[in-house]
Design brief:
199 residues, Glycoprotein, Type 4 Pilin, Dna Ligase, domain 1, 2 domains, 6 helices, globular
Length: 199
């Protein structure tokens, strides 16, 4: 199963109606932190502690920050695993497999702040129907495929055309491929992080 590293900006909190309760958000973030910390001590994830909701297959991206700077981001586009397991695997991959960064050290792991972007199922979308701030995009053509999360366009100040162009470039396609050859699928994301569950 392949993982993707889609972006390098800090995602904002989701403003849409929340699917996940505060307790569910906390549980998933605990999984993310423990997955990284447990790598240093080879502790397995307990599979019997999660609700049916958190065990549904979902796509998710896990983003790590260290003192406000991006430290890793890896995710699954497709719902290939139960959500809690997908969070476990993407958090660990973001810490140790994101090729843009050195592996997270144990002292760093204790300082990480984590944000999760839980994805909706993909659905086909026409370029003219893309809404900035609501839709994430997957562009594909032949073997080429690239993804950008909804918050990327907002953080970068892109309009619809720029978002389409940048998603094509992410896929390794010419930026104007959105006008003809590229296929687009969209998704929404519920984004939350440590700052959202702090008491």
């Amino acid at each position: 199963m392949s993982k993707s590293s889609p972006h390098s900006v800090i995602p904002p909190s989701s403003s849409a109606a929340a699917e996940f309760t505060l307790e569910e958000r906390r549980s998933l973030l605990v999984v993310a932190h423990q997955s990284i910390l447990s790598a240093f001590h080879d502790k397995p994830l307990r599979e019997d502690e999660f609700s049916a909701h958190l065990s549904q297959p979902r796509g998710v991206f896990t983003t790590l920050y260290l003192r406000g700077d991006l430290r890793g981001c890896v995710g699954y586009i497709m719902p290939v695993l139960p959500l809690h397991r997908a969070v476990f695997e993407t958090a660990r991959a973001a810490a140790f497999e994101d090729s843009r960064f050195m592996q997270v050290t144990e002292p760093e792991a204790k300082e990480l702040e984590i944000s999760l972007s839980v994805l909706s199922p993909l659905f086909p979308i026409r370029p003219e129907d893309v809404e900035i701030g609501r839709h994430g995009l997957v562009a594909s053509m032949g073997p080429f495929r690239g993804l950008l999360l909804p918050q990327v366009a907002v953080e970068c100040g892109w309009d619809r055309q720029t978002f389409l162009e940048q998603t094509c470039r992410k896929a390794g396609l010419p930026s104007d491929s959105w006008r003809n050859a590229a296929k687009f699928e969209a998704f929404t994301a519920e984004v939350f992080g440590d700052v959202d569950v702090a008491t």
